[in-house]
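Complex 389.
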Amino acid sequence: MLHTIAGFDRIGEENAFAVLARASELERAGRDIINLGIGQPDFGTPEHIVEAAIKALKDGHHGYTPATGILPLREAVARRTLTTTGVEVSPDNVMIMPGGKVTMFAAILMFGEPGAEILYPDPGFPIYRSMIEFTGATPVPIPIREDNDFAFSGEETLSLITDKTRLIIVNSPANPTGGVTPRAEIEALVAGLENWPDVAVMSDEIYETMTYDGAEHVSLLTFPQLRDRLIVLNGWSKTWAMTGWRMGWSIWPDQLYDKARKLAVNGWSCVNAASQFAGIAAIDGPQDEADKIVAAFDDRRKLTVEAMNALPNIICRTPKGAFYAFPNISGTGWKAKELASALLEEAGVATIGGPDFGILGEGYLRLSYANSAENIERAIVRIGDFLSR
Ligand code: PLP
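Predicted structure with pyridoxal-5'-phosphate bound:
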């Protein structure tokens, strides 16, 4: 018998991929499935970005790049960060990662070990908890509540910190709830963190461009007092519809940067060279298609919320960010995962049960509205028909 490490008894998964696989299987069997499950834009990557990758390949960019990413791309990220946040970061603090996810993987590996505590949002992106558990650290959920409009509370987060806390993970705009945490809560958190100078923070800002109804994305980079212990996770997947390119970036404080570089050298060497050139084109090129994606999501968001609220026994808050709605389905009498599974198998609609995002996700479904308005409408009619059976 082989003896792999105990972490594999604890590591989790992202159930969205299992739902996608099942949805595809049903489609292959001839079923008509509407997918509101997977968290990826339903748009293709803008053409000028694709062209930049093709050009890079034709120009002979076929080899390794520096582990931290090519300098022109790190410079582009620094320029963009200045534009979006007003904050100057050095390209020497920017790391190019094979996807947004890899930043959380690296950050959690850096701080997690038995005896350590790591705070993370619940409901939240499932990999936070999974990776924390893998390292043997204790996952400490930060409750994300519907009655707080799915924002995190600065005070409540501070109240969970102990002398064992190593890392706090925050995410706004958030998956799976679409919650956007207001400035006041973030300021309260940052102010209180002055009492905990040895606690690092990872801010997952991958949905930074996707806010609606005037909601403000507040980057933690704008708080200079946090900079020496702040890791910012960002990337290309959502903003430029590039999930399959595996392109992310992160901003690391000086004291952690070389550790992240070493993880890259040990793990993935560097990110695909042609993709990195595409990444420059995405940042420096026209943003009209990226803007169009957000405008389309905004329309579909309104449609989703209105249609879901028209169903009996469902309450759907209006999400202010990302491309997810998180309706409360507890009034239907269904358990969330059972409902998600029945909707897929019997009604042909893929959604994700809230518990796949944490204990506090019970009673909710995650709907990704990254699908056409027509499909969203059809899907919600099917949900309504199913529930009234
Ligand atoms: N962070 C959050 C909150 C996400 O929702 C996702 C993807 O769904 C990621 C990170 C990972 O992004 P990527 O596909 O670039 O690894």
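The chain has a mean pLDDT of 97.
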